[in-house]
Hints:
The protein has 168 residues and is α+β, with helices and mostly antiparallel strands. It is 32% helix and 15% strand. A hairpin with a 3-residue loop joins strand 1 (16-19) and strand 2 (23-27). The chain is globular.
Amino acid sequence: MTDCAYCKVAKDSSRAIYEDDLCYAMLVSKPANPGHVVLLPKEHAPILEAVPKKTLAHLWVVANKLSVSLFDGLQAQGSNVVVHNGVVAGQSHAHALMHILPRTQGDGLDFQWAPKQVSPEQLTAIANQLSQEIPVVGTTSAAPEESNSTDDVDSGEDYLTRAVSRLP
């Protein structure tokens, strides 16, 4: 772990609720709702793209189990798993992590946004652009749990250059 604020708190925290070889989970000191948990990989990564695939897959499994614990332990009626992927997306520190939020009817949290109007032509143009950028999923020879590489789908130099330019 590095010296980022989340790493420091996770190392020695009375708010810790889970730890294994790959990740930590802890309660948030200023939660959106009581029981708000953050889950972070032990290996520091500024955005999800930099998290090894094995760890990323593991984080989703643990996030699901934490969500179930909110249902069972706090009688939550729902949950949100939120990722702020990059400073512009709301990260307060450059560290990939997941927020797991317990939800109850009338809790006052509002994740609604005003839909924007997009023309059919714009949708088609965006779909075409993104489909050219998204690597084909499921075509690698190694099973996902056997690979820690974030670039085994597209190992070209361009991919690595783009990935580095996206780091906060």
